[in-house]
Structure formats: structure tokens, C-alpha cells
């Protein structure tokens, strides 16, 4: 008989699966199918979330390129959905009480003990209750079962959700179909960066309205490429001058080396704004040389 496992509402729209599709450059449908393949393997192995399937096997089942499925498996690991050969959230999503085998064994033991003590007496009300539990052993739980009611969202989760909605509403003309990807990118920022992104979204929207020469930056890219760093508070309040550095100048290359990651460009693609002309170390050396 095939084993069954628990799946929950929200799998198809899960933001992490959308992020995996973005990273692996494939459709969400392929990501969902690959994830279901891992879950089915874990249910079949029945060892606390351990699975024994591999990218090549899943690629053969789905008739997809092996490299594509390998990229999907790698993204699952990067996002913490799997660790080694185990599904990380298996214990939280699947419950031991889902197995009727254990409940049946306990029922038989209790019934056997009762028969020995009472000499096969007529079933008591307790025995009848246990029999009823046995008959319903394989019935899945309902949303009203208090044993499985999910805990209320934490204040941190509520803060993050409300913060993302504030950021999303501030961005100019966001695409509703890309909201899940943007939310996943927002969740990967720490609390200080999220607050910075929220404040920068309003300033970016104002700048875009004043000069709408191109399509707006998507919210996901605005977060992923850290474009919000270029829309800080006005220079007067920060006490420093905002300096525009042109692309491929010595100052630009110095900022690239200092940040160690790609720097976003302005709408015209000619450069970006920085707090100073040179990054801190280069600025000090530049002053000494002068």
C-alpha cells in the first residue's frame, strides 16, 4: 500500500518556490513538481524527512534537463528547504499521530490489559471510546482539531508582513504577478535593511514621477540588487554631500572594489550616487596624495 504524506494550502503560491524558479530560470510548475518528488521520496523512506531521490532521477521523471533540476535542488539547499538529504521542515509539517499503526498498537495493548484485569468483561465506556478512536485512526485531522491548530503568527512575522506591504504600496506601478518574488527578496533582508528599503521606496517613487523616462525598477530587483542604497535620506539631513559618480571612472571602479558586488545604475545608465566621491579608504589615500 502506498504511503501518504501531508501537504498544506499555499504550496502552489509559496514564495520560496517562486524564488527557486527565479534562481534556476525555469517555470514554477517544474519547481513544484521537483519539490513534490522530494516529498514523495521522504514519505516513502519514512525516516524523519530523509529522501533518497536525486536530480537525475527527478529529471528523468519530469523529462527535464538534468542541469535544470540540479539547479533547482541547489536552490532548495540555499533557501534552507533541504539540508543534506533531509527535508528540514518535515517534522513540523508531518505528525507522528498521522500514523494509525502506533495508535492501533496502543489500543491493542490497552485492550489486552483491560481483558486481563476484568476477565473479558463487557466493554466499559472507556473501551468504547478507544474503539471509536481505532475506527477513526486513519481519518486526517480537520482544521478544528486543537492538537494541530497552527500557532498565532509572531510579532516579528506580523512586522515583516506589514513592512513589506508598506514597501510594495510605495513602489511605482508594481506588477501583481511578481509580488511573491519581491516578498521573498524582502524577507532575506535584516530588519534595518527592510526599514531602509521601505523609506527608499517612497523616495524612488517620487524621483520616478518627476522624470518617468523609462519603466520603473521592479520591486524584486530594487531589493535584490540593493538599489534602495542609492535612495537614502536627503544630503542635508545626513550632513554629507551626495556625489554622482560616472560609470567606468577611477572613482566608480574604487566603489566597485569597496562594495564587492554589482552597483545599480541610474535610469540613463550613466552612473550612480554615492555619499562621497571616493570610498572611505580610497578617499583617505586620495587626500594624502593631494
Describe the overall structure:
54% of the residues lie in helices and 4% in strands. With 290 residues, the chain is mainly α. The strands form two sheets. The chain has a two-stranded antiparallel ribbon with strand order 1-2. Strands 3-4 form a two-stranded antiparallel ribbon. Helix 1 crosses helix 9 and helix 3 packs across helix 4. About 4% of the residues have low confidence.
Estimate the global geometry from the Cα principal axes. elongated
- Counting DSSP E segments of at least 2 residues, the number of strands comes to 4
Strand order in the sheet with the most strands: 1-2
Structural Rg: 28 Å
Structure class: mainly alpha
Q: What's the helix count?
A: 14
Distance between the termini: 81 Å
SSE order in H/E notation?
HHHHEEHHHHHHHHEHEH
Overall average residue pLDDT: 78
State the major sheet.
2 strands, antiparallel
| Beta-strand percentage range | under 5%
Helical residues, percent: 40-55%
List the quaternary state of the chains. single chain
State the low-pLDDT regions, or none.
141-146, 235-241
How many domains? The number is 4
List the main descriptive attributes of the protein structure presented here.
4 domains; two-stranded antiparallel sheet; elongated; two-stranded antiparallel ribbon; 290 residues; 4 strands; mainly alpha
